[in-house]
Design brief:
The chain is mainly α and 93 residues long. The chain has a domain at 30-92. The chain has helices at residues 4-26, 32-63, 69-92. The longest helix is centred in the middle third of the chain and has 32 residues, at 32-63.
């Protein structure tokens, strides 16, 4: 069983992620240029995240006899999130 320090670090990471997610969610662009920068940053972050997950799946597929399901679930969540976000933004704007 992990010790208290590990639990504190996990709680710290969760809190930092919640703060970051709140910052990203409330972020507003003031003009078209900032909106473009926000869109490009979002695309690059999405591509980086999916690229790392696909690379992890490929490495595990070639080196191990099985792929960690969390990698597949994370990739699926990113893809579904992108699709849902697309339709949500189309209906709202």
């Amino acid at each position: 069983m992990p010790d208290t320090l590990v639990y504190m670090l996990i709680a710290g990471v969760i809190i930092l992620f919640a703060l970051f997610a709140g910052f990203v969610w409330k972020e507003r662009a003031r003009d078209e240029r900032e909106q473009l920068h926000k869109m490009i940053a979002g695309r690059l972050a999405y591509l980086a995240g999916t690229g790392v997950l696909v690379l992890g799946i490929a490495v595990q597929g070639f080196t191990l006899s099985h792929v960690d399901p969390w990698l597949l679930f994370a990739l699926l969540a990113m893809i579904l999130g992108k699709i849902v976000g697309f339709f949500y933004s189309r209906s709202r704007h």
